[in-house]
Specification:
Elements: H1 3-8, E1 11-15, H2 19-30, E2 34-39, E3 50-52, E4 58-60, H3 69-78, E5 89-91, E6 96-101, E7 104-108, H4 112-122, H5 126-148, H6 162-166, H7 168-171, H8 177-184, H9 188-201, H10 214-220, E8 225-227, H11 231-245, E9 248-251, E10 257-260, E11 266-270, E12 273-277, E13 279-282, H12 286-293, H13 303-308, E14 314-322, E15 332-335, H14 340-348, E16 359-362, E17 377-385, H15 393-411, E18 419-425, H16 427-434, E19 466-468, H17 479-498
Parallel strand pairs: 1-2, 1-13, 2-9, 6-15, 13-19
Antiparallel strand pairs: 3-4, 5-8, 6-7, 10-11, 11-12, 14-17, 14-18, 15-16, 16-17
Helix pairs in contact: 2-11, 2-17, 3-17, 4-5, 5-10
The structure holds flavin-adenine dinucleotide (FAD).
Length: about 500
C-alpha cells in the first residue's frame, strides 16, 4: 500500500454527538484515526443535553438515573483515566421512592440489608426470595456485560461461547419478565417495584424477556448514583476524553446526505458542502439515517420493517423551576398512585394520551445545590407516552394540570404559584431536535424479537465502511448501552479500515 493510500484510510466521521457518538469518536481516535464529529444541535449530548436558564437553573434534559457505573468506569479506564477525574458521584440513599398513594410511600434504600427488611415488612418470606432473584439477576448481568453486550450482533457464531451455552437457560431469554417476577413476589407493591425499570424504558413486562431482570440487579444492588452537576458533566468528561484522543467536534452541523463516493469512500453532504471520509459511524436516529440521509437502495430496511418495530415510549416532560423548597420530594420519586396496567396499555397496546398517568419526578436540587438558585427547586416531570401521539400545547397543559394536582396534594405545597421557570418537551420536540423516529425517547423496546442480533444491524449491508451506533441498534436503549454501542461500532470500523 502506498503512503497516500495509507493516509487516505485514516479519515473518519461520526454523525451525532450523543453518548454513542462521543464514545465512538473517542475509540476511533484512540485507534489512530482522524475523527470529525458532526452534530446538528448547538450543543453536544443529544438526548442528554442540558438546559441552562437565565435565572440560574441547570436541567438535565434527558437521563437522570446513573445506573451500571461499571460501564462508565470502563469507558474512562480504556483511556487511562477515571470518572472521578471529570465528575463526582454520589450514591443516592434512598435510591428512589415510589408513591403508591398519598400516604403510602416506599423509600428504596441503598443498603441491601435494609432493602431485605423492607421487602419482608411488605410480604413475609420475600427477602429470601429477593436474594435468589438478585443472585440470578447478577449472573445475567455478569454474562450480559462480559459475553453479550460488547458483541456486534452480526452473526450467531458470536454466541458460540462455552459459558453462554452452559448458561443459556439461566439467562431466561424465552421466559417473560412478568411471569418471572410473579414467581417470586405476589404483593402488587413489590411487583410494581420490580417491573418499573422495564416498563419505563422498554415494553410491557409480559413482552420483555426475563433476561432483563439484570436491570433490577443494576438498580437494587449496584446502586443509583448521581453525577454532581448532572449528566451534562458526564457528557463533558467523555467529550474531553475524545478530544484528548484527537477527535474534533463540529456543532450546529447537520449531515444532510450519505453517499458512496468513488474509490470506496463515503461522501457526507452538509448543506451544500461535501466531504469524503474512509469510514463513517452514524449515531443519529437509525431511521433518519436510513430514510433521510441514505439514497434509496443503500438502506438496510424498508419502511414496512420500521412500521413493525416496537418502539420504546416517547414522553411528555416539564422542566420547572420553583422559587421555594418543596416538601416530601426525593431525588427520584415515582408516582404509581394510579393503575399501572392501564397506563401501560395506553403506551403499548392502545396508544393514546393516558387518562390517569403515572409519572416520574426528578428533583436533583435535593442533592445538588449547583442546579438551582439557593432556596429553589429544580424539578423534572416525566410522563411516559406512546410514540407518535398527536402533540399539542393544549394536550401538554391538560396533562400538566393532571399531574400537578397530584404533586401538590402529595407535597402539600402550592408549587404552581411558585414556578419561576417552565418549559415543556414532547413528541414534536424529539422529532425536531433529534430527528427521532415517531418522536421516540428511548429507541427500540427490549422485546424478545428485538434483542441482540434481531436489532437493526450495526453495519450497513450495502456500504461496508458505514456503521450505526446508538440506542436503536445493539445493545439497546439507555446511556450505558449507548456508550457500549459507540465502542462496538468503532471497533468494527477500525477492523474494517485496517483490514
Ligand atoms: C427523557 C429521557 C430520559 C432518559 N432517562 C434515562 C436515564 O435516566 N438513564 C439512562 O441510562 N438512559 C435514559 N434515557 C435514555 C438515554 O438518554 C438514551 O438512550 C441515550 O442518551 C441515547 O444516546 P444516543 O447517542 O444513542 O442518541 P442521541 O442522544 O439522540 O444522540 C444522537 C445525536 O445525533 C444528532 N443528530 C440527529 N440527526 C443528525 C444529523 N442529520 N446530523 C448531525 N447530527 C444529527 C442528534 O442531535 C443527537 O445529538 C433517557 C432518555 C430520555 C429522552
Amino acid at each position: 500500500m502506498s503512503t497516500s493510500e495509507k493516509a487516505r484510510k485514516n479519515n473518519t466521521a461520526v454523525i451525532g454527538a450523543g453518548f454513542a457518538g462521543i464514545s465512538a469518536a473517542a475509540y476511533l481516535a484512540q485507534g489512530g484515526f482522524k475523527v470529525d464529529v458532526f452534530e446538528k444541535n448547538m450543543q453536544v449530548g443529544g438526548r442528554a443535553r442540558q438546559l441552562e436558564t437565565d435565572n440560574g437553573y441547570t436541567f438535565d434534559m434527558g437521563p437522570s438515573w446513573y445506573w451500571m457505573p461499571d460501564v462508565f468506569d470502563k469507558f474512562f479506564s480504556d483511556f487511562g483515566c477515571k470518572a472521578s477525574d471529570f465528575y463526582e458521584l454520589e450514591l443516592l440513599d434512598p435510591g428512589f421512592s415510589i408513591v403508591y398513594g398519598m400516604d403510602d410511600v416506599l423509600d428504596v434504600p441503598a443498603d441491601f440489608d435494609a432493602l431485605c427488611k423492607l421487602f419482608e415488612s411488605i410480604e413475609t418470606g420475600s427477602s429470601e426470595r429477593l436474594k435468589v432473584f438478585l443472585d440470578e439477576a447478577a449472573f445475567k448481568y455478569k454474562v450480559g456485560i462480559e459475553k453479550l453486550v460488547y458483541k456486534p450482533g452480526l452473526s450467531v457464531m458470536e454466541f458460540l461461547d462455552a459459558d453462554l451455552i452452559k448458561g443459556v437457560f439461566k439467562l431466561q431469554v424465552f421466559t417473560s419478565f412478568s411471569k418471572h417476577v410473579r414467581k417470586f413476589f405476589t404483593h402488587p407493591k413489590l411487583i410494581a417495584l420490580m417491573e418499573f425499570p422495564v416498563l419505563f424504558l422498554g415494553a410491557m413486562p409480559e413482552d420483555t424477556p426475563a433476561l432483563y431482570s439484570l436491570m433490577n440487579y443494576a438498580g437494587l444492588k449496584l446502586g443509583t448514583w448521581y453525577p454532581k452537576g448532572g449528566f451534562g458533566k458526564v457528557i463533558e468528561g467523555m467529550k474531553r476524553v475524545a478530544e484528548l484522543q484527537g477527535a474534533t467536534f463540529h456543532i450546529g452541523q447537520s449531515v444532510t446526505s450519505i453517499r458512496k463516493s468513488d474509490s470506496s469512500g463515503i461522501e457526507l453532504g452538509m448543506n451544500g458542502i461535501n466531504k469524503i471520509f474512509d469510514g463513517v459511524i452514524a449515531s443519529a436516529d437509525y431511521h433518519h439515517v436510513e430514510k433521510q440521509l441514505l439514497a434509496e437502495g443503500d438502506n438496510n430496511y424498508s419502511e414496512n420493517y420500521w412500521d413493525k418495530r416496537v418502539l420504546a415510549p416517547s414522553c411528555l416532560i416539564f422542566y420547572i423551576g420553583v422559587n421555594r423548597k418543596v416538601n416530601r420530594l426525593r431525588h427520584h420519586t415515582l408516582f404509581f398512585d394510579e393503575d399501572l396496567n392501564q397506563h401501560a396499555i395506553e403506551i403499548y397496546k392502545d396508544p393514546k394520551w393516558p387518562a390517569k398517568p403515572l409519572f416520574y419526578v426528578c428533583c436533583p436540587s435535593k442533592t445538588d445545590d449547583t442546579v438551582a438558585p439557593e432556596g429553589h427547586e429544580n424539578i423534572f416531570l416525566l410522563v411516559p407516552l406512546a410514540p407518535d401521539l398527536e402533540d399539542t400545547e393544549a394536550l401538554r397543559e391538560k396533562h400538566f394540570k393532571l399531574i400537578m394536582d397530584r404533586l401538590e396534594k402529595y407535597t402539600g405545597d402550592d408549587i404552581v404559584k411558585h414556578i419561576d421557570y417552565k418549559k415543556s418537551y414532547c413528541v414534536a420536540d424529539f422529532k425536531q431536535d433529534y430527528n427521532s423516529y415517531k418522536g421516540n425517547a428511548y429507541g427500540l423496546a427490549n422485546t424478545l424479537m428485538q434483542t441482540a442480533n434481531l436489532k437493526p444491524s450495526i453495519q450497513n449491508k450495502k456500504i461496508p465502511n458505514l456503521y450505526y451506533a446508538g440506542q436503536l441498534t445493539v445493545p439497546g436503549p439507555g446511556v450505558p448501552p449507548s456508550i457500549i454501542s459507540g465502542n462496538v461500532a468503532a471497533k468494527q470500523l477500525i477492523n474494517h479500515l485496517k483490514a
